[in-house]
Write a structure and sequence with these properties.
mainly beta, 6-stranded antiparallel sheet, 5-stranded mixed sheet, binds beta-D-fructofuranose
Length: about 475
């Protein structure tokens, strides 16, 4: 939602208790609140931040402007989880209360070092002429949740970038800390800078080089880059704004992409044996994905189910955005797989065989199998008139089509109401998670993913098989 700068950048302490109460009360009236996906307490949720493991728990912050469905003065809001499916807000926040983050504590990452969690993030600073300077800064969080900001700027704005230089991702590679940061060059091309922690101390960063990753530079900015290592393969995950559609076919305003690489030369800042860009998600919204190599040997990721510069039907209720399920990343036959953590099955109630249902709680998982040489169509969020979210699986051609044009309140229609992807032409498995106004469809246990939102009418909660064969189970999910 477009709101004037004076409102979006109004200091937090100027918002009265009454105003805050009204904002929270308005959100509580929404018919679309989710049950097992994380949503903001109030206002707008965007990027996942500081996703990490520390002090025996997983930690996840979210980018937030707490006063409405707009991008304003951002803070990080802390949540923690022991199972990666229940995230509880703790009340801890990284607020924009320092001269180095005066206009927003922008996105970043976290890493447990000794007995503290190091938060590495971008301070968004504007002067009186609204000129922006991005600063890479840090903070330490203790085990009892006390946050102390580092007084020094960790990385200043280099000469070869515009005001768009942000989202440091810290990672350990062979015992050495590195960070990659999204950047825009002076001729407005997106690129990524690689830094190394001098003597492995995270308050002292040395520039290594601009990362070579086979990018064409067709994007004008790269946001939220992450480098994770899956079975030793470096996988670069990033959000390229303005990426040319000849480089990658996509429909969302901005895509979220990845490249699987063969090796990483830290001295030359070079990823080698890099695959083409691939879409991380084939649905309508998944952005700013954050991933990390966890101490349990797994690689976890989580995405913002939302996009920049889009109005949502929840805006009149003063909130916007949700987090995806946490996905475990793996590589099989050279392909990236993303699949919800195994603990998700603990939310399942007794299975029922797939059948048409006039109404459901719109909080369930479907586990389906579509035989080869079929064109099968399924309708979720279905009403009596036969409208709903249509999923068509053609196992003869290997095509999956998702059409949300007939569910409740539509939005972002300029970017189309259908999405598709290709899969091997063979029998196909689907695991579909539905949560009130969110769907996450995992094809063949994570070979392809469609994430998106729909905002159904009150009578849209049914399931209908429209065409072809399919079989499987329905599980109501309760957190
Ligand atoms: C991506 C992004 C980041 C930035 C943050 C600000 O959605 O634009 O690049 O740090 O959001 O909220």
């Amino acid at each position: 939602m477009k709101l004037p700068i004076e409102i979006r950048y109004r200091p937090y302490q100027e918002w009265s208790e009454k105003e805050k109460h009204q904002i929270a009360a308005n959100k509580a009236k929404s018919p679309w609140l989710t049950t097992f996906h994380l949503e903001p307490q109030t206002g707008l949720l965007n990027d996942p931040n500081g996703f990490s493991f520390f002090n025996g728990k997983f930690h996840l912050f979210y980018q937030n402007w707490p006063f409405g469905p707009a991008h304003g003065l951002k803070q990080w809001v802390h949540t923690e989880s022991s199972d990666l499916i229940r995230f509880k807000e703790t009340g801890i926040k990284l607020e924009p209360d320092h001269p180095h983050d005066s206009h927003g504590a922008y996105s970043g990452s976290a890493y447990a070092i000794d007995d503290k969690l190091f938060l590495f993030y971008t301070g968004n600073v504007r002067d009186d002429h609204w000129h922006r300077t991005p600063l890479q800064i840090g903070a330490w969080m203790t085990k009892d949740g006390h946050i102390t900001k580092c007084e020094q700027i960790l990385i200043e704005q280099p000469d070869d970038v515009t005001e768009h230089f942000r989202d440091p991702h810290i990672f350990d590679y062979q015992g050495q800390f590195f960070a990659i940061i999204g950047a825009q060059s002076l001729d407005k091309k997106g690129f990524i800078k690689l830094y190394k922690a001098l003597n492995n101390k995270v308050h002292n960063w040395e520039f290594v080089g601009n990362l070579t990753f086979g990018g064409t530079g067709s994007e004008y900015m790269i946001e939220c880059p992450n480098l994770v290592f899956i079975d030793g393969y470096p996988v670069l995950i990033y959000s390229p704004q303005g990426l040319s559609k000849t480089e990658l076919d996509y429909n969302n305003i901005y895509p979220n992409t990845y490249k699987i690489c063969q090796s990483f030369d830290t001295k030359k800042a070079e990823l080698r044996g890099v695959s083409d860009s691939q879409l991380l998600d084939y649905g309508f919204e998944a952005y700013a994905t954050q991933a990390f190599n966890a101490p349990d040997g797994k690689v976890y990721s989580i995405s913002w189910i939302g996009l920049p510069d889009i109005d949502y039907p929840t805006d009149p209720y003063d909130y916007q955005g949700a987090m995806s399920l946490v996905k475990e990343l793996s590589i099989k036959d050279g392909k990236l797989y993303q699949y919800p953590v195994p603990a998700m099955t603990s939310l399942r109630s007794t299975p029922q065989p797939l059948a048409d249902l006039a109404t459901t709680t719109n909080a369930y998982e479907l586990e389906l199998e579509i035989p080869a040489n079929q064109t099968s169509e399924l309708l979720l969020f279905a009403d009596e008139e036969g409208r709903g979210l249509s999923i068509t699986v053609d196992t003869a051609t290997g095509t999956i089509l998702v059409d949300r044009s007939h569910v409740g309140e539509t939005y972002a229609t300029d970017f189309g109401t259908k999405r598709h992807c290709s899969v091997p032409a063979s029998d196909t498995k689907l695991n579909i998670f539905v949560d009130k106004s969110i769907f996450e469809i995992f094809v063949n246990k994570g070979e392809k993913v469609f994430t998106g939102r729909v905002f159904p009418n009150p009578d849209q909660s049914g399931i209908k098989q429209l065409k072809g064969q399919m079989s499987g189970s329905y599980f109501e999910l309760v957190l």
